[in-house]
Amino acid sequence: MKKYFSYFLLLIIIAACSKDEPKKFSFMPETPQVGDEITIQFISDQENLKEVSEMNMIIYSFGNELLNTSKIVLKKKDNVWIGKFKADKDTKGLITKFMSSEIIDDNNQLGYGIPLFDNDENELPGYKAGLANVYQRWAGAVSLKKDSELANKYFKEDFAKHPEIKNEFLNGYVSSFPKNKIDSVAAAEIEKLEEKNIFTQSELEFLTNWTRNIGDHVKSLKYYELVQEKYPESNLIKSKYYGKFRNMLTVEKKLEVFNEYINFDKKSEVSAYMLSNIVHQ
Predict the structure, then answer these.
(1) Distance (Å, rounded) from C-alpha 19 to C-alpha 2?
(2) At what angle do helices 179-193 and 201-213 cross, to 10 degrees?
(3) Rounded to an integer, what distance in angstroms lies between the CA atom of residue 11 and that of residue 156?
(4) Rounded to two decimals, what is the model's pTM?
(5) 3-state secondary structure of 274
(6) Which of left, alpha, beta for 109 (phi over 0: left; psi -120 to 50: alpha)?
(7) How many helices (H) and strands (E) are present in the chain, helices listed first?
(8) DSSP assignment, residue 30?
(9) Potential cystine with 127: which of 115, 168, 203, 265 (Cβ 3.0-4.6 Å)?
C-alpha cells in the first residue's frame, strides 16, 4: 500500500511541476486572420518594467512592405498587460515591442512576431519573408536589430513553401546574402526575371536597383523608365525626385523639378513638401 501511495504522490508532484507557466508574450486567437480582433498579453520579466504603472505596445504591420505603425495603450489585469489590435487586409504579419516611458522590451531587438493565417489555419504566404524584410531592410526604421543571417533563413523557408511569392521579395532577399555572394546572386535572379515579358512593380524596382548595383547602368535606366511609366507612385520614383529637388539651390530650379514631378504625381507627400518648400523659400 505504501508503494502505491508513494507512486500516486509522485504523480501529483510531477503534474504540479509540469503545469505551464504563464507565457511572457501570447495572443488570442492562436491562429488570427485578417480582420480578427487580436488580444495580446504581455508579462514583463525585466526588473525595470515590473513595477511600472503604464505600458504601451508599438505594433508594426507588414506585407511585402512595411505598412503601418500603431501605438496601443495597454491595460493591466493582475500582472498581465493586455491590448487589442485588428490587422488590415494587406497584412501578412505583425511585430511588436513594449515600452513604458523610455524603458523598452523588444525581445533583444528582434521584436515579438504575430503571424496571420488563412481559413485553414495555415500561416499566410509571405509572413516569414515579410518578417525577414523587417530584419534586413527596415530594422533601422523600427529600431530593431538588423540580422541578415536570420533574414536569409526566413526568406528561404518561405520561398521553399511558397515559391510564387519570391519575386515580390527579391530586393531584401538578395541583400541578405554575405557581401562576397551578393553580386552573383543578384545576377542570377536578374537573368531569371529577364526571361519574362511582363513585370510587376516589385520586379521592375528590383531590376532597376540591382542592374545598377552590379554596374549595368544602361539596363538600369531602361527599367527605371518603365517604372516611371507604369508605376509613377513607386517610392523609387519619389525618392529620385526628392533627392533631385533637394539638390537644387535656387527657387527657379526647384520649380522646374516640381513641375516635372507633378506631371505624374500631384497628390503625394513629396509633391506637397516640394510646394511648401518653394512657397517658403
Answers:
(1) 26
(2) 130
(3) 44
(4) 0.80
(5) helix
(6) left
(7) 10, 9
(8) S
(9) 115
